């Protein structure tokens, strides 16, 4: 009888939005999430957000790590690594610790890289240098489009 009374914590499972599914709203999860359908809204995840090759997200994405193999229109905040795969397209502002864009992947927007705390610069100086980096990035993007 004691076995029946024990409560077990459910294990975290990944969340999957399949191809052909359209979903709108706010998602908050502790596990990983993969979007192969269409999602509009906001996703906050403690694990990894993956936008599959057929996935489309018109969203604000926040997670430890983010992988984009489909398309994202919106802002991305990765506490760790942001990977834009060769089939991935991002249109928006990105903030991450590490950015990897594979050959063929596209980023149309700004990218700021922020290292984890522990560096020597104070927050005010860091923010100023991020703004300068964004201006340089926007200028270079403008030059590429013009020429």
Automatic annotation (TrEMBL):
Pfam families registered for this protein in UniProt: Bactofilin
Compositionally biased residues, Basic and acidic residues: 135-147
Region feature Disordered, mapped onto this chain: 111-147
PANTHER family: HYPOTHETICAL CYTOSOLIC PROTEIN, POLYMER-FORMING CYTOSKELETAL PROTEIN
Family statement drawn from the similarity comment of this UniProt entry: Belongs to the bactofilin family.
Name the UniProt record assigns to this protein: Polymer-forming cytoskeletal protein
Species of provenance: Paenibacillus alvei (Bacillus alvei)
């Amino acid at each position: 009888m004691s076995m029946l009374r024990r409560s077990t914590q459910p294990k975290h499972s990944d969340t999957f939005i399949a191809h052909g599914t359209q979903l709108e709203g706010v998602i908050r999860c502790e596990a990983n999430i993969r979007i192969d359908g269409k999602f509009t809204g906001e996703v906050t995840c403690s694990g990894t957000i993956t936008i599959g090759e057929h996935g489309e997200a018109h969203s604000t994405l926040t997670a430890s790590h983010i992988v984009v193999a489909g398309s994202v229109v919106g802002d991305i905040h990765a506490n760790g690594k942001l990977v834009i795969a060769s089939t991935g397209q991002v249109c928006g502002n990105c903030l991450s610790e590490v950015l990897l864009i594979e050959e063929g992947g596209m980023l149309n927007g700004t990218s700021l890289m922020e290292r984890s705390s522990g560096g020597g610069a104070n927050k005010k100086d860091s923010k100023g240098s991020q703004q300068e980096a964004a201006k340089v990035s926007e200028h270079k993007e403008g030059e590429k489009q013009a020429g």
